[in-house]
Design goal:
Length: 270
C-alpha cells in the first residue's frame, strides 16, 4: 500500500507541476520531439544523397575492353622544359681576381617525340617503357661579381631516353581514368659539345614522377600526361683537357656541380 501511494503521489506531482490542462507540453516532451525531428531530418538527407548518387548518369563506354589487353602500343608527342640546378662555389681566380657565378636564366620549350609499350600487370598496375627523343636547349649566364660583366652560353641538346615507369590507375569512370606514374629514366645527350665554357656529361639518370588521365575516345585512347624529372648524377664535366682556350677554365672552376631537371607535357595515343 505504501508503494502504491508513493506512485500515486509521484504521478500527482507531475500532473500538478506540468498542469495538464495547459496546452504547452512539458520540457522533456519537447526534447523528445526535437530528437525525433532531428533523426527524421538526418534520415531524409541520407536518403536524398543515396538517391542522387545512384541516379548519376552512366554514359556508354568507348572501347570498354581495351584495358584487358596484355600489351598496349602507341606513340607520344609533347613539349618539355630543361633546367640545370648549378652549385656555385665562389671561386676567385688567383690571377685576375674575378669571381664568376653561373645560372640558367631563361627556359625555352623543346619538342618531344617517342613510342610507348605498356604491359598490364593487374587491374590497377602496369609497366611502361617509352623510348623518347627530346630536342631542346638551355640558356646559361655567367656573372662576374667584381666588374658586373656577363657572359652567356647556350646548351643545345638532343636527348635519347628510355624511361621505365610503373603506372597506377584508378578505376575507370565512364570514359576517364586518372593515374599516377613513377620510375627511372636513363638519358644520353648526343650533342654534348667540347671547347665550351662549361661542358656537360653526355649521360644522366633521372628519377621521375607524374600524373595523367586516360581519355577513351571511339577509335583510340588520348592520354595527356605531365611528368617531373630530377637528375641524380652530377653532369658538370670537371676534367677540361679538351679546352683550347685555357682562360675558359675559370667558368668550370667556379662551380662544384650541377643536376638536370625537366618538365614534360606529352599527349600519348594508344
Amino acid at each position: 500500500m505504501i508503494v502504491i501511494q508513493k506512485r500515486q503521489t509521484f504521478f500527482f506531482f507531475l500532473t500538478k507541476n506540468n498542469d495538464l490542462s495547459n496546452k504547452k507540453p512539458p520540457s522533456y516532451v519537447i526534447i523528445l520531439m526535437h530528437t525525433r525531428s532531428l533523426r527524421s531530418f538526418v534520415s531524409l538527407v541520407a536518403f536524398i544523397l543515396a538517391l542522387s548518387l545512384t541516379a548519376q548518369e552512366r554514359k556508354v563506354q568507348n572501347r570498354p575492353y581495351i584495358d584487358q589487353r596484355k600489351f598496349h602500343y602507341g606513340f607520344l608527342l609533347g613539349l618539355h622544359i630543361q633546367d640545370i640546378e648549378i652549385e656555385n662555389n665562389g671561386h676567385i681566380d688567383p690571377e685576375t681576381g674575378e669571381q664568376w657565378y653561373a645560372e640558367i636564366d631563361n627556359y625555352s620549350p623543346g619538342f618531344t617525340v617517342g613510342v610507348l609499350g605498356d604491359l598490364r600487370l593487374n587491374n590497377h598496375f602496369s609497366l611502361r617503357v617509352s623510348p623518347t627523343i627530346h630536342f631542346g636547349q638551355k640558356h646559361a649566364v655567367y656573372h662576374e661579381q667584381k666588374s658586373g660583366s656577363d657572359s652567356t652560353q647556350v646548351f643545345k641538346s638532343t636527348y635519347i631516353s628510355v624511361p621505365i615507369d610503373i603506372k597506377f590507375a584508378a578505376p575507370r569512370y565512364n570514359n576517364f581514368r586518372p593515374y599516377l606514374i613513377a620510375g627511372v629514366n636513363p638519358m644520353v645527350d648526343l650533342t654534348a659539345r667540347k671547347h665550351d665554357a662549361l661542358r656537360l656529361k653526355p649521360f644522366d639518370l633521372y628519377l621521375e614522377v607524374g600524373m595523367g588521365c586516360d581519355i577513351y575516345l571511339p577509335f583510340f585512347k588520348l592520354i595527356p600526361e605531365l611528368k617531373f624529372s630530377f637528375g641524380l648524377l652530377d653532369i658538370i664535366q670537371k676534367d677540361r683537357s679538351d679546352l683550347i682556350d685555357t682562360s675558359l677554365i675559370k667558368y668550370t672552376n667556379s662551380v662544384n656541380g650541377g643536376h638536370s631537371k625537366m618538365i614534360t607535357l606529352t599527349f600519348n595515343f594508344e
